[in-house]
Amino acid sequence: MKTEILRAFRFTLAPTPAQEQRLLRWCGNSRLAFNYALAAKKAAHEDWRTQVVALVDAGVEEATARKRVKVPTPTKPTVYKRFVAERGDDRRGVEGIAPWWHEMNTYVFQSAFLDADAAWKNWLDSFKGKRAGRRVGYPRFKKRGLARDSFRLHHDVKKPGIRLTTYRRLRLPAFGEIRLHDNARRLGRLISREEARIQSVTVSRSGHRWYASVLCKVQVDLPEKPTRAQQTAGTVGVDLGVKMLAALSRPLDPKSPDREGHFVTNPRHLARVAKRLRQAQRALSRKQKGSARRDKARRRVARLHHEVTVRRRAALHQVTKKLATRYATIHIEDLHVAGMTATARGTLKRPGRSVRQKAGLNRAILDTAMAETRRQLTYKTSWYGSQLAVLDRWWPSSKTCSDCGWRNPSLTLNERVFHCAHCGLVLDRDLNAARNIERHTAARPTPQQVASGKGETQNARGESVRLPRPRAEKQDPVKREDARPSPAPPRRSNPPTSPPTYNGQAKSS
């Protein structure tokens, strides 16, 4: 059965120097429009705060004053009408904030207004506790040189202005044709068979490269169940780590030796270019601000970071596709990457220890992109008929024996081999964790993940992200693996006499 999903096709562009200057100008106007809309929202917010303060000074309770004052926040339609009245027109000699607006597509401005609406809504939802995930801060203006250069264009799908003229050329409305560094044959054939319709295109710059992400509605056959080969392979537990990118409970390649089949080597992309990146950053720090040589050194640093990003993404796509296509169910942990990579500096009252070593560990964890691995597995499993099962965040997969269930609560991170004091099992720590992950999530698979473009996937535990006011002092770190006793373990070493506490409170089961 055909299902319509949203899928993005990303192409590398090969613009001429003149086209690159035009792209930069369009990105600048998108940034201008976003700042214009955000300034209107902030002005309305300041007006609301001023009126609330005036009522509070007059003797009204703050809660009552907040409900009484009503100042509408301007949204995209209101902002666009105001922008049209103030933009000007250099063809008629009318001054304004953007008199050159007629030289580019109108969606450069309108899409930026929509982005400002989304940023404002995300902040409000996060402040009220309606949005899952980490806290979203107060929207900030985009600054040239810091914000990413990008703009988004839409068109009428019945009269498409965004289209492929050839497999190597993409036409943008009001811009013209631009050459593709890649080949768009796959997308062109889908469009010719009327299985894909272009909705929008986002042009962005990363490092020294320009990219076009073409968003399409695609008719695909999403499998309802795993294939026969996937059912034969069964399930696999995946333990993500730093020493090895992933440890698998079952070999990814049955023909390879046992250890090589169970482990995916960590490429350590950032460590490979660390020396060149260090030299480039030192050279950049010695250049005079505003000089041409400093700009050249800045581009060199950006290029190195971009190369690391591209290689990391390519490696993760290869691993996640193999997992999603070869197994019926993939089991992973619900890792809290933000907590794992928290700084160890501490506070003035309680300074941290081994800060430099922890910073190196944080850098290595972030280089593995664990959250990106889960994101890719989330949508790829729905594409290829497999399922994604997630183990509870607090289940001690590394401290539990995968054979008998004996638990070692005193296991430290530097012990890379797990020794079971009950059954005598000696196994690599990560491989033991991968087997536990597969075993203890087999009966609790997650619901079928949404396909791309059909909604939001799981991105947090669904807890409120509001912080107490005034903001509390730095919280104590929370262990990722606790030592709670299992329902009926065979044996445990050093059994706890009382339930473990977290920040002074007992953790409920």
What would you note in describing this structure?
The chain has 509 residues and is of the alpha+beta class. The chain folds into two domains: 1-221, no CATH class; 228-506, no CATH class. Helix content is 39%, strand content 17%. The chain contains 14 helices and 16 strands. It has helices at residues 17-57, 62-68, 76-86, 107-128, 185-192, 228-233, 258-262, 269-272, 274-286, 292-326, 337-340, 355-368, 370-383, 429-440, and strands at residues 2-13, 150-154, 163-166, 169-172, 176-179, 196-206, 209-221, 235-240, 244-248, 263-265, 329-333, 387-391, 417-419, 426-428, 501-502, 505-506. The strands form five sheets. Strands 10-9-8-11-12 form a five-stranded mixed β-sheet, sandwiched between helices. Helix 1 (17-57) crosses helix 2 (62-68) and helix 10 crosses helix 13. The protein starts with a strand and ends with a strand. The model is unreliable at 443-509 (pLDDT under 50).
Uncertain stretches of 5 or more adjacent residues: 443-509
Determine the mean pLDDT: 86
Query: What fraction of the residues are assigned to beta strands by DSSP?
Result: 15-25%
Summarize the main sheet: 5 strands, mixed
Supply the number of structural domains. 2
Strand order of the largest sheet: 10-9-8-11-12
- Count the beta strands: 16
Assign an overall shape. Answer: globular
Over all CA atoms, what is the radius of gyration?
27 Å
What characteristics describe this protein?
disordered C terminus; 17% strand; 2 domains; alpha+beta; 16 strands; four-stranded antiparallel sheet; 509 residues; single chain; five-stranded mixed sheet
